[in-house]
Here is the input.
Amino acid sequence: MSHATVLSRAGMGLNAPLVSVEAHLSNGLPAFSVVGLPESSVRESRERVRSALICSHFKWPDRRITVSLAPAELPKSGGRFDLPIALAILVASGQLTANALTNREFFGELGLDGSLRQCRGLLAAVRAATLDQRAVILPAAQAKTMAVVPGSRVTAAEDLLSACGLIKAKSLAVIKVKADTTSTQKPASTAQITGQEVAKRALEIAAAGGHHLLMIGPPGAGKTLLAASLPPLLEDPSPSDQLELSLMRDLLGLEPNSGRPFRAPHHSTTAAGLVGGGINATPGEVSLAHGGVLFLDELAEFRGTVLDLLRQPLESGHISLSRAKGTYQYPARFQLVAAMNPCPCGFAGIQNETCRCRPDVVGRYQARISGPLLDRIDLHVRLERQPAAVLLRGSNSESHTQDLRENIERARQRQHERQGCLNAMLNNTALLQVCPMEPAVRHWFEDACDRLRLSGRGIHKTLRIARSLADLAQDSALSEVTLLEAMGYRSKLPV
Here is the structure.
């Protein structure tokens, strides 16, 4: 046989289109060429494959070798095609039989000694192969990672020789690997927070309804500790959210983790770092926080152009990146928790503190947060410095935190049973249906919205918060007290 085909897959974000690796041996001067729109990392596979075959005691064909990666219009990058290229050459030269190549896909970068090295982005390829009901042979170092794909048939190979042994075998032994669900995170607990009852109440509402939260207060008020206390109040992520998060972490070469993600990028992060981008359009922090919490500390220190990129994912729950190679779409459904000082010195409007900033400086500082972005954040909370007597008396017990978590869980379960999603994700039509009010309460709320000049988004945000408050109190209808408390979280930045 002078022709052979081995199946593999390219990487296109969370998609993994099928690639046929074809090898053809012909007479003529010895040569080795790779066609099919390969990038430099793929073209360099010629040297890796040649050395790996020789070091694995195979014979290198002294013929004209042409390797085609089809479809030709699909860009190919990375070293994942080394193993399928080597196998295709071996089958085409008659050193291997092709009886085990059908319904199997191969991935892996080859070392010069024939060893198999792990590659980025294989999790998406394994998921696509599983959907097409094909088994997968890949580097042994990544076998445990692939366990997050349900129903996958993964076989691990240490090197090229072991991969060839699997091909020669009549049956392919599938390695069963248990997914590692051990969480490496140790998030803070609300039991560590002393005082700040208003902020803890806002944290409870945010956890119950999936709302975004902005905390404004002086340095040392506990904003960071409050933000880190949100993930433990949430239930475990769904299997679909966990799989999507693992797929995106794999694209960046990160290990999968369990539990709700908590991402806290520095305020110097770039637009590509926050929402994703680059040549290959890799996911950013908003996608790595999918299903969890994105904490932006020192919000006013972020560049305005970077912050405004959050508008789309806050509304839609995904981010779209357009490049010359195509459009990449990543999930980005997260809870935004932001913290900022009221002014550069941190003490504008704070009781018993003197602000050193001029009024125009304070105004410019707060103006760094655009109105449209501020309007998309559900809860706005002012924090004050706590007296020494409050700080020294200690915090709540862990049992109080457990009771809080159970109350939040009941509220979230109530929402899922009623509407199938959290209150923060309701569309406007469904929101009005689940917010019944007495005629007198409705008239009062309409008048209050007009007097406060709330935008349409602000009115709907207020209703969502009120609905979460009612769910925490196990009330079916919205009361005037509930709406009044909800409106208190929609205040503007102080000037």
Summary: Residues 398-419 form the longest helix (22 residues). The chain has a mean pLDDT of 88. The longest strand covers residues 18-26.
